[in-house]
Amino acid sequence: MSDQSVILVAAADSIERDRLRHQVDTLTTETVQVEVVRDPTALHARFDELIDEGTLVPLIIVDEGLAVDADEALQRAASAAGTALLRRSSPTVAAELEIARKSIQRLKRTFLGDTDLSDDEVEDAMIEEIDRALNHPERVVYPAGTILLEEDQTVDGIRIVMDGRVRLFRHVEGHDVIFHSRTAGRIVGLSAMALRRPAAFTAQAVTELTAIPVSFDQLDTALQRSPTLSVHLVDVLVRSLARRNLRTVEQRVHIDRLARELAVERDQLANALARLEQAQTRLIESEKMATLGQLVAGVAHELNNPVAAIERGVDFLTEDVEQLSAAHPLSEVVLASLDRARNQAPLSTRQERDLWRDLGAELGDDSLAERLVGLGLRTPQDAGRLLDGLSPGERDALLSEMEIYHRLGTSLRNVRSSAGRIASHVKSLRSYARADREKRTDVSIEEGLDESLMLLNHKLGEIELARAYGSVPPMIGYAGELNQVWTNLLSNAIQAMAGRGTLTVGTSAPDPSHVQATITDTGPGIAQDDLSRIFDLHFTTKEGRVEFGLGLGLTITRDIVERHHGVIDVDSRPGRTSFRVTMPVDGVDAIDQKD
Amino acid sequence: MTEITILVLEDEPEVRAAVSRDLELFADSFRIGLSDTADDARTVISEVRDGGGEVGLILCDHLLPGLRGTEFLIELDHDPATASMRKVLLTGQAGHEDTIRAINEGGLDHYIAKPWTVEELHAVVRDQLTEYVLAEVEDLLPYVSILDGPRLLEAISERGWDR
Are the Cβ atoms of A499 and B36 closer than 8 angstroms? Predict the structure, then answer.
């Protein structure tokens, strides 16, 4: 588009020419010139010339004395170029001139992105022009909710909205996606008109709507009758489309931001889920441990009664057997046999064999020696006192009688000691599980280590155990939980050594307000890469082997130590791995302190 | 006649005494040997062999100081001198893996769970000793009354025909 505009004035009479020129001069600006021509032929020629140059011709004013009305060719050309064609005799010429003046400015400025006129003024001007051209067409009132256009349907006209609001949307996957509401503008069917294609949107009245329906045919007629209408229409079109376009850009930006926010939220959700899953696993593990503790405490309690009955029963049996033996014809001998079986320190199988071999050599009778040693008679003197002067038959009868009482004594002794062992297991189970685990008490970490070691004793195999206990004050904590810590660390250490090596368990007080336990094994060590991960949930070097009640991972161990405001650290190299737990003596009551 | 020993390998004296007493049923025909460690069991086995006898059956605890019973049984199975010995695991604690390994590697003929019943123990010992004497002993007659009589008599008559 050229920077220059030219207003053409055509008049045959020189006086009229001057008068018109004078009127139009008010329109002249730096970029708008007025040119005057004398006749229709010159007007045609100059108009074509200017249009060919690309010069904008917003207005042609024709004196009524010239017969231009009949010249349809000029009318068509003016309509096509967006040029307003004015009759000088029109009573509204002054108003039209004012509109033309504004249009010129607007035409210049719209494309520069600036205008004095509001959208409403532009639209009002357009409506005014339509009213004039179509003889005030009918206003139609549409109730709220009326569908004015259906997307993808052929459109045969526009509706110019006088009052009320419209929204434009498309049906997308069962939803109405709203594209324009405030930015719908006042022309419904805009893009259909501009692009001559089916409706891009469905248009619906949001409120009650007053609008002028204008068919494309009517619009063509109006455009022909009122050349300025095209200027207004183009202006309205450009503005509406620009606003819609702006809105689309905003929406695109908005969508982009939403997408990024969604991606962030999705990541946060994924993280939260992972953390929840971890927390759940931890809860399940500690719940398992708590259940295990209750189970152990319950079982221990149930075992107490039968154990007590067995222990008492053995005592009663012993008394009764002694009473019966006192009535035996050989009471002295059988009672002695009973006593030896009950009280004599047991020998290893090798010692016992050596004894009867020696005695056999002395007595010259291996099988007699074996029977005697079996009865706890270990020297030739013992044998002599008992057997001298007896015939082989009498000897055999006596030994057989003694063997009955020896067996009785052995059984009583074994039942007594086995029941005692059960009782002691029950005691350590109860103390380990601590039915009263919720209560904080003074806890001795050495007792805890010892109880845990007792439970793990059967796993030691050939592992040597070295205890190095310093004198350590009690700490305030949950004994049952701390026992889990010791059991877990000790069990890991034992497992790492696979049956051979030295397990060193030490305690100390690094300062008066802290206690420390160190558990050291001589296993292969933990790889440097793994060291940072050993406290992670599910991390195990045990290749999936789960030991009953153990294998809980160091995560829970660390949780418990931290609940006691302590720290756990590990130092590992091949052949020596050391876990050190340091806790304040105030334990769970301590205030967190930074090292 | 070669004297056959039943060896009990059990580190806890109470349990050892109980097993040993439950085996008295067999004491007229077999020697009962007792060991509290795998080392001592090796000694007993070699002493028995030095004395011209054989250990026909070992009843072995699973948790021994420094060694698992299954490992010891596998060791015995790999030694030609003791391969023919019948091997029974007597345990309250063997895990599946250990037991499966012992069976697969041929170390284990039978498995008795603690606590055992005397009937079960007698039946297992009788069966295992019957297998042993059928495989290793020429003169089966002395065992007919104490072990599986019908099987032994059948074997005796078959061997008689062969001669």
Answer: no
Which residue has 């007698």 as its token pair?
A: B122
Contact status of A571 with chain B (Cβ, < 8 Å): no
Strand order in the sheet with A187-188: A140-142, A209-215, A157-163, A187-188
Strand A441-443 to A475-477 pairing: antiparallel
Alpha carbon distance A278, A301 (integer Å): 34
Can you tell me which residue has the tokens 């007590």?
Answer: A308
Tell me: the pLDDT tens digits for A381-427? 988 888 888 898 999 999 999 999 999 999 999 998 888 888 877 87
User: B36 — contact with chain A (CB < 8 Å)?
Assistant: yes
Which value does ipTM take for this structure?
0.77
Q: Among A349, A370, A494, A545, pick the best mutation site for testing chain B contact (most B Cβ within 10 A).
A: A349
> What digits encode the pLDDT tens for the residues A495-540?
888 778 899 999 999 999 999 999 999 988 888 877 777 776 545 5
How far is the C-alpha of A283 from the C-alpha of B3, rounded, in Å? 62
Q: Do B67 and A352 touch (CB under 8 A)?
A: no
B34 in contact with A, Cβ within 8 Å: yes
Is B52 exposed, middle or buried, given 0-12, 13-18 or 19+ CB atoms closer than 10 A? exposed
Distance CA B146, CA B29 (A): 8
Nearest to B97 by CA among B125, B62, B65: B62
**Residue B5 CB contacts under 8 Å (≥ 6 apart), including other chains:** B30, B31, B32, B33, B44, B48, B53, B54, B55, B56
Chain-chain contact of A418 with B14 (C-beta, under 8 angstroms): yes
Q: How far apart are CA B107 and CA B118, in angstroms?
A: 24
The answer for B 57-76 residues in CB contact with A (under 8 A) is: 63, 65-67
Angstrom distances, CA of residue A11 to CA of A15, A74, A190: 9, 15, 39
Nearest chain B residue to A414 by CA: give it: B14
